[in-house]
Specification:
single chain; about 150 residues; mainly beta; Substrate Binding Domain Of DNAk, Chain A, domain 1; five-stranded antiparallel beta sheet; 1 helix; about 5% helix; about 50% strand
Amino acid sequence: MEKILKDVRLTGREVTVCWAAIPSPYVVWNERQLGQGFAWRPGAVSFRTLEDDGPHDIRIYRVRGEPPLPPRAVRVIEVPFLLPVANGIEVGGRLDTRMLGWLAGSYLLRVAFFNAPRLEFAFMKDAEPRFAIPVADAGIARRTDFDLSGIPA
């Protein structure tokens, strides 16, 4: 499955993926989370975008296994994402969120950022769930000890 979301209005340099209708999907960021580029908690994860506020195109797709890293990506972050029931996901910002039907399951979610207002979200089935930063730009620190204490906003 693949879906292209056009002109999703993001604000606060943040994009969020969460279970559909989760209460309080957004997080209060701390300095460490800003440095790693994401704030995670079960059911919701927010990522710092490269671009300032404005419309972004977001490609979302589901795949088995792990495809190669996108060659033009300047930042790539991977996190586990468990969807316990097939009630869907929401993707977007605080002012513009899009709801998508989605299959329940355990995924490795890979988010790729480009030198444009464009993002790719790959939901990978049959991939080992992990927290990783395979590609880091100057805006984040490549690390292995992540702050996983996302606090709902």
